[in-house]
């Protein structure tokens, strides 16, 4: 092998892999990275709030330069005081953004971007407060995060998803309606610790610290 080939091989080995790595942190929190951009969903939350999952800092992968994608301001999804001492950037509803310094905010709108991730926000009902579900397009993959909404309407309007992250109550609601979720993989999140989630619609349930990998894809038509 000549010097040029060796250099190209070394560069390829050092370059971030073209895929997304997902790790479940608890509640509705996933750590997602492509090696360049890192996004965490509904995190940092107040550990153990309302009887939901606890977490320890030692169990959280590095968040340097990361963004937090927040569906709403309930403490089991976001705790403002825990942002202090981090450099997290927030993509979140306006009432949540107001709890952090201006420098930490991505201006909220129907279309947002952070690094390689394009984010679309959809207003969905939950507990009479600002709540948004999100479709994230990243490396040609389409990811959808329901958050805590009780309505299945926006979820069922989504098509061509690679992964739908869905609460246990929405999973049951869709099954009761005799409908299906148009996603290659349906991941349940915000289950209680030890909760047995019914085996509906081909759902996958991860324990804390577990996860999966999704290879990059060409953009959907």
Write the layout of secondary structure elements.
Blueprint: H1 3-14, E1 19-26, E2 29-33, E3 38-41, E4 67-69, E5 89-91, H2 94-97, E6 111-114, E7 117-123, E8 132-138, E9 141-145, H3 153-157, E10 161-166, H4 168-176, E11 183-188, E12 204-205, E13 211-215
Parallel strand pairs: 3-4, 4-5, 9-10, 10-11, 11-12
Antiparallel strand pairs: 1-2, 1-13, 2-3, 6-7, 7-8, 8-9
> In the CATH hierarchy, what is the class?
Alpha Beta
Percentage of residues assigned to helices: 10-25%
Q: How many domains, in number, for the residues?
A: 1
Spatial gap, N to C terminus: 40 Å
Would you tell me the overall average pLDDT? 91
CATH fold description: Metallo-beta-lactamase, Chain A
Shape: globular
Structural class: alpha/beta
CATH evolutionary superfamily: Ribonuclease Z/Hydroxyacylglutathione hydrolase-like
- Percentage of residues in DSSP E strands: 25-35%
Count of β-strands: 13
How would you summarize what this structure contains?
The chain has helices spanning 3-14, 94-97, 153-157, 168-176; strands at residues 19-26, 29-33, 38-41, 67-69, 89-91, 111-114, 117-123, 132-138, 141-145, 161-166, 183-188, 204-205, 211-215. With 221 residues, it is an alpha/beta fold. The chain has a seven-stranded mixed sheet.
